[in-house]
Amino acid sequence: MTRSFAPSGDLSSPIVAVACVVAALSFGLLVLELVRARGRAAGAVGAAPARAALGTALTGALAVLGLLAAILRPVAVTSRGSLVGPKVVVLVDGSRSMDLPGVAGTRRDSAERALEELGKRADVRLSRYVFGEGAPLPADGQASEGGGSAPAPGVSAGAAPAPDRDAGAGAPAAAPASAAAPAPPARGRPQRRSDLSAALEALARAADERPSAFVVVSDGRLDRPGPDDTAAATRAALEGLDVPVHTVAVATESVRDAGVRAVRTSGAAVAHQPLSLRIDIGCSGGLACDAVPVVARELREQGAPTTLATGTAHVEGGVGTVELGVTLDRAGTRILEVSIKAPDGDELPENDVRYITLDVARDRIRVLHVAGRPTYDVRALRMWLKADASVDVVAFFILRTPGDEVNASSDELALIPFPVDELFSVHLSSFDAVVLQDFDAAPYGLTKHLPALAQYVDKGGGLIMVGGPNAFVSGNYARTRLARVLPVDLDIGRAPKVDLGAFVPRITAAGRAAPVLAPLLALIGDEMPEMPGTNVVGDPLPGATVLMTHPTRTTASGAPMPVLSLGEHESGRTIALTLDGSHRLLFSAFASSSAGRAHGAFWDALLGWLMRDPRFEPAAIEPRGGCLAGEETALVLRPLAGQRGEARVTIARLGSGAVVKTLTAPIGEGGEPVELAAGRLEPGGYSATVEIVPEGAAGDGGDQKRATTRRDFACERGGDEWADPRPDVARLEAIARATGGASVLPSAAGSLSLPAATQVAAERHVAPLLPPWAWTLAAAAALGAHWIVRRRGGLA
């Protein structure tokens, strides 16, 4: 309760002002009169004149005050109400660096200590948010400001905070009289960034009550504002909101650590071309570092990582840099592991290994085309390969075998022997794809190189086997190492090896849904031209996708015999096309309807799928926001528009190939992204393989695996937030200094100088001090007394 005094409520402000001015003038005139009277009585002797002057002054003052009181008639105002503290927004850093050691326990524990100290302040209303990426989010378990029951904006009473990042851009509007202890900061998924500027911008633009002060609880490892423009960026983020930003440093010293701070590349990653890696090494916390060994490896689907380069970083002043040159022999997504051998005493081994994902492009697709004889089909494919400017083709077709009797000396021969040993032992790795068309492996010495060709596929190469009288089983590929990487079984127990009967291939349900046949079907529809014959093969192998089948011939299992099959083996892809009549898509009566364009569309798609061209992948998949070990990982699947069915995702570990997770999700025609929960993964590299099973795809080869796509990704512990564990107290101090705030430690958070509370009145009682006649009587008595004193003092 408070008590105050005021003029009578029936007087307007101008009347009160005039009365005060007249009273002031009366005092002035009284003083002037007394000064003049004193001058006239200067020659008088004794105390009587002095007492008369004093009496005149006192009675005159009382008369003026009495007249003023009679006009104003003062009243007593009694107010009953409560104090409402200012709105103070507490922003707690939610990044992963807050899990590192801090002032007391982890930095997150130190943040909780700071919130406990702030919660002891009953004179403020606290709104607690966690900042990271984008707009801040209300802290988990937060009630209303000061502990009331009003929910945060966008959150229903009794519900958890909305996951939308824009929710919580403002603060609750309730204003309880007292503050309760705040809830601890959010313990949910740590943030991947620490963007304080975005948080300040969101709260400064909020339409509700503006905060009177900010308190930032962080370790200073901020993405924004940066270290170079901290003050200016902070003021700009507040957008003219002139309030102090106090900071609480949850860590002041770094752990003893040597780690990989950053891995950068200069230029784009292109297969078969050197790429420079710039690796920054840092040492902190007093750890002694001099020469730190660095190794760059590429993770493989099977087997140990392949060492690409090694080097030594010489550390001076806690920082060292080394550049390593690497050459990647495969296009597509590649995972590189960069690791160091840290000195003894390293307390944070998690940042000794970093992973970098590279999307390796091709300058040109380098294709080795080997054909057994010059046929129409060989000629059509060779012409198409040479006409494509994006393809660099090296072509060989056989005009004589080693056993041919030419009856001429070697000097007289224009034909050279087939360089099989040089091609498949020296230059094989330089090709992106190999096409074996109607080629017999035995007469030309290729048989001994088939294991190397199979290993080439395992490491990421592409292989297409095209039919003809000397292909597949007839080409002596059955029961070889290469047969294991083909998508179909080479069944040598059945006869014949070749079926010369004309037929029209039948497109399967998987073929109608697969993007790889979409360009062809767009030109010719569902009907294929008549083919002159086919090689006889067995059932598709596990993991194969059958796009075309024979209309009458079946395999040993009774299923339609595959004609066009796609397969994946470890890191590579293979295609089996059992016919040698694809040239009829180029020049035939059937081809005239599409002006011969169907042949190019068919082979462009097959080669594109072999090279993992996104146009011919059934879907795209990647981890949302990356993957961090030990935290929930979400995979975002983006199917092609128009697909309907089920997506089956298999997550396997690179190196061992062990399947760690299998996920399924329905997909609709709209091609909307689908999010799948992959759970918590361990550090390392992974491959996510997506298989799209079309809706109602049963029979007609529908029980086989459908077209797949794969995305490699890596999970690391801590990520960029743990790369540099040093706290940045200087940046926190610069933020506070730029806005008139203070920077303290968690234990002193409760002593921050925050704005004063405001009293909100709930009840007001007004009572006159005296009735009006009493004020008038007192004024008249004082005026009469003054007149008597003046007369006795000789004043007229």
From TrEMBL:
Residues 136-194 are annotated as: Disordered. The chain crosses the membrane at residues 12-32, 52-72. Keywords: Membrane, Transmembrane, Transmembrane helix. It comes from the Bacteria. Gene3D superfamilies: 3.40.50.880, von Willebrand factor, type A domain (3.40.50.410). The keyword Transmembrane applies. SUPFAM superfamilies: Class I glutamine amidotransferase-like. The keyword Membrane applies. Residues 449-611 form the Putative glutamine amidotransferase domain. InterPro entries: Class_I_gatase-like, GATase1-like, vWFA_dom_sf. Residues 150-181 have a biased composition (Low complexity). This is Putative glutamine amidotransferase domain-containing protein. It comes from Sorangium cellulosum (strain So ce56).
